[in-house]
Design a protein that fits this description.
55% helix; alpha+beta; 405 residues; 14 helices; four-stranded antiparallel sheet; eight-stranded mixed sheet; 18% strand
């Protein structure tokens, strides 16, 4: 067996002879590695899930807004219909507006977060109709008080899922109106998270014709909307985006005034991804403090080990052991401790991340380079924090070491 093998054998023997102390030494490393890895894997899973959801969408939106500092014009229903006629590459063009109300169900009163949209919202992901239908263009034009609700909302409000044709009264401010359910859509992950399954009060999110919102709030539908979205198939996105600004400017009579802004919704934006990366990095940095604590623990325990083995070191040096041999032996012991702790931390970190991703319905994405980096970091910690006690052991005077008790 070569010198390297002897060093490893000696280091492993020392660790086995002090199992309890070795375990406590590794604990800080295990916690630190597991914490950092869990956070990084969850962050990667969240980004992958968000981008994957956008990639699965056949219908994307192109958001168009009016700069209110340059004009006081708003999108009217006639304007939006004209934009649709001027663009054959889109399914439709309409606003999205919210209002909050309450409604009494079979057992309780519930908060309703209404979303007023155009009928073309039915093409987007998350609107799979399981009973009935989505509301129509006639419903929008005639300001019909109809709605599409989720499966969970139907069960809460009426006691059963197939509630097409049922009616309920909703109150917004001081105004109460009766809505007719025309469709039940499949619950989305957002519906489930808002439905009270995490202990919060249930909030349901019906879709309604956007014309209902100004009517319910006693506002003018022609003087309310400064933004709207074009719904377009992803294969036609580039063509639609190149043309829509010009069409909207012509319809609104705003050509040359730079009052129209266009933004495409496709995947996570650079800003959103950067924010998520920053949050992940900050939380990982906080978690990595435990790695620093673990490294200090390694240095502390190795220093104690040097003190306990001073006489052994003196004997070895008196028999001709080189300073570099003593240094290497103690560094090997520190590296083994942190490497084992790192491996255990990786296993626990991946396990915790898997559980969180399953519960939160995130993708579970493991980057092999990340794992390799974590192993390198844990070993590096052992070497870095093991240098001081190893150098202290290597520099002991043989005569002084032999005299120690």
């Amino acid at each position: 067996m070569g010198k390297a093998g002897e060093y490893l054998k000696s280091a492993i023997a020392s660790i086995r002879n002090n199992k309890g102390r070795s375990l406590l030494t590794m604990l800080g490393i295990i916690i630190g590695i597991a914490s950092v890895l869990t956070i990084l894997v969850i962050g990667d899973g969240l980004k992958a899930t968000a981008n994957g959801q956008f990639e699965d969408m056949d219908v994307l939106t192109i958001d168009v807004s009016i700069d209110e500092s340059k004009t006081d014009k708003c999108f009217t229903p006639e304007n939006m219909a004209a934009v649709e006629r001027g663009m054959s590459s889109i399914y439709g063009f309409g606003p999205s507006i919210n209002m909050v109300g309450t409604a009494d169900g079979k057992k309780d009163s519930y908060t309703l977060f209404f979303t007023g949209v155009s009928d073309v919202k039915r093409f987007t992901t998350g609107n799979k109709i399981v009973h009935g239908r989505y509301f129509t263009r006639d419903d929008v034009d005639e300001c019909n008080y109809v709605c599409v609700i989720s499966q969970g909302a139907a069960t809460a409000l009426f006691g059963y899922e197939e509630a097409v044709g049922e009616t309920f009264e909703a109150t917004v401010g001081e105004k109460t109106k009766e809505f007719t359910v025309v469709g039940i859509r499949e619950d989305t992950s957002m519906d489930k998270s808002y439905a009270g399954q995490y202990g919060n009060d249930p909030v349901f999110m019906p879709d309604i014709p956007y014309t209902v919102v100004p009517d319910m709030c006693d506002k003018d539908v022609n003087n309310m909307f400064t933004s709207a979205s074009a719904y377009v198939h992803k294969d036609n996105k580039d063509e639609a985006q190149a043309k829509i600004k010009s069409v909207v400017e012509n319809v609104m009579g705003l050509r040359g005034e730079s009052a129209i802004k266009v933004k495409s919704t496709e995947g996570m934006s650079t800003v959103e991804e950067t924010i998520l990366d920053v949050i992940t990095s900050v939380v990982s940095l906080i978690a990595s403090i435990s790695l620093l604590v673990g490294g200090i623990g390694v240095m502390n325990i190795m220093t104690v080990s040097v003190t306990e083995r001073t006489r052994e070191i003196g004997i070895r040096k008196s028999l001709g052991a080189r300073t570099s041999s003593i240094l290497t032996q103690f560094l090997a012991e520190a590296a083994i401790l942190t490497s084992i702790g790192g491996i255990i931390g990786i296993i626990l970190g991946l396990l915790f991340a898997k559980i969180v991703c399953m519960v939160a319905e995130f993708g579970f994405v493991v980057n092999p380079l990340l794992i390799a980096g974590v192993v390198a970091i844990s070993t590096g910690i052992g070497l870095f924090f093991g240098i001081y006690p190893a150098r202290r052991a290597a520099k002991l005077n043989p005569i002084d070491a032999l005299r120690s008790e």
